[in-house]
Design a protein that fits this description.
The protein is of the alpha/beta class. It is built from 10 helices and 6 strands. It has a 6-stranded parallel β-sheet with strand order 3-2-1-4-5-6, with helices on both faces. This is (S)-2-haloacid dehalogenase.
Length: 233
């Protein structure tokens, strides 16, 4: 990346679940719902991502919340568990996730630097709007995009290409920020710059292109961008 290319970065696309929002309360909801262990909740989330990709590849698209409920039933069946009588739904639990502690300050610094911030989520449009509003970070974003508009899921390359078009940005002007190796891998293959947020337990996919940046949390992203720029001068 040349310094001129770095200066041309105008838009940051952010994944939402796990990257910006802490999903531990969601996992606890599942533990309570299924009377299960945290490992089972982790298995549910992994399967949710898996079957969203199955929908994307097969063309048999369903809303993310519907897939979440279906995978919950599958997970319960796999482990011989019966869903309990916990109040609320998975969608409601998703809608009330808190932001990671590092996120507000990080987003504020990026916004102050003049970058356009866009949320790009596998959640439905209404759900991701509720999530960002509840977490108190919606005002930082210039736009909020849901893959439901395309009836597919990240990391389908068409999602990133569509997101670029909505913002009138070229791939070299944009960076995808995510805590999932598959998300930054897909964005990189679509031509975007990428930043991997190394949340606990998250790993890069070794067979995907390397991201441009790796940071421990969002608050470190502004300085990482500045350091990258200086290094390329």
């Amino acid at each position: 990346m040349t310094d001129q290319t770095r200066k041309s970065i105008t838009t940051l696309f952010f994944d939402v679940n796990e990257t910006l929002l802490d999903i531990q309360p969601l996992k606890q909801f599942l533990v309570d719902n299924l009377s299960a262990t945290p490992e089972v909740a982790d298995a549910w989330f992994t399967s949710l991502l898996h079957f969203s990709l199955v929908d994307a590849i097969s063309g048999n698209w369903h809303p993310f919340g519907d897939i979440a409920e279906a995978v919950l039933a599958m997970t319960a069946g796999k482990y011989g568990l019966k869903p309990g009588h916990v109040s609320g739904t998975i969608s409601e639990a998703l809608a009330t996730l808190p932001a990671h502690a590092d996120v507000p300050a990080g987003l504020e610094s990026l916004k102050y630097a003049g970058l356009k911030l866009v949320a790009l989520s596998n959640s439905s449009q209404s759900l991701v709007e509720r999530q960002l509003t509840y977490a108190g970070i919606r005002p930082f974003f210039d736009d909020v995009l849901s893959v439901a508009n395309l009836r597919t899921y990240k990391p389908d390359l068409t999602v990133y290409q569509w997101a670029l078009r909505t913002q009138g940005a070229q791939a070299e002007q944009a960076m995808m920020v995510a805590a999932h190796g598959w998300d930054v891998g897909g964005a990189k293959l679509a031509g975007l710059k990428t930043a991997f947020v190394a949340r606990p337990g998250q790993q890069l996919y070794p067979l995907a292109p390397e991201p441009d940046l790796v940071v421990a949390d969002v608050s470190l992203l502004p300085e990482a961008l500045a350091t990258l720029s200086r290094a390329e001068m």
